[in-house]
Design goal:
Elements (H helix, E strand, L loop, with lengths): L2 H29 L8 H20 L11 H21 L10 H31 L5 H19 L3 H22 L5
Helix pairs in contact: 1-2, 1-3, 2-3, 2-6, 3-4, 4-5, 5-6
Length: 186
């Protein structure tokens, strides 16, 4: 077993748990839709986190030819992966009641969610730098960095319209970047 294969098992498990948690939360929300009020902002951020998890699981394949493994690289990748899982937890905390108000829950957890997203963005840039063994290109750093700024502003501005537009903006631009600019998914 190579170092990449060893680490990819753990990354796959953590991201898989994040996806399972996210999809389980959505399924539960749908199942109890008569007693739990869904929220457009919460759904939009759920779609964004789903895309982040799936995209980065795929992008992790870029590590398959990496050969400079150290504990610090390993640890950074684990923190990066864990930050994605925590995003799912912030959206769907464990043991929710059947009559949860998703709008209130998002508002309660918004600082936790947005600060985790800022950390994820910083770790994403760091993980890319470690993989490339040099600073990531300026366009990538600006692209991921501006998502961190959007999330940081979201911690300060408590505006539902901002939250909704920000979530959809990130989803759309991330998809355009992945399918177009970087052709990550093809």
């Amino acid at each position: 077993m190579t170092d990449f294969e060893f680490l990819s098992v753990l990354v796959s498990i953590v991201i898989g748990f994040g996806l399972t948690h996210l999809l389980g939360g959505l399924g539960r929300a749908y199942h109890f839709r008569r007693t739990s009020k869904m929220d457009a902002v919460h759904v939009a951020w759920t779609i964004m986190v789903f895309f982040v998890l799936v995209l980065n699981w795929w992008v992790f394949l870029l590590w398959r030819d990496f050969d400079a493994w150290t504990f610090s690289v390993f640890f950074t990748i684990i923190m990066w992966t864990t930050s994605m899982y925590v995003l799912a937890l912030a959206l769907f905390p464990p043991r929710l009641s059947k009559d949860v108000d998703y709008r209130v829950m998002f508002e309660t957890n918004r600082t936790w969610f947005f600060s985790t997203f800022v950390v994820f963005c910083a770790l994403d840039i760091l993980v890319t730098a470690l993989r490339e063994q040099s600073a990531p290109d300026t366009l990538f750093t600006a692209f991921v960095g501006h998502f961190a700024v959007i999330a940081a502003v979201g911690m300060i501005i408590r505006n539902r319209r901002y939250d909704l537009v920000a979530a959809w903006y990130i989803v759309i631009t991330m998809a355009l970047w992945s399918f177009g600019v970087r052709s990550t998914l093809f």
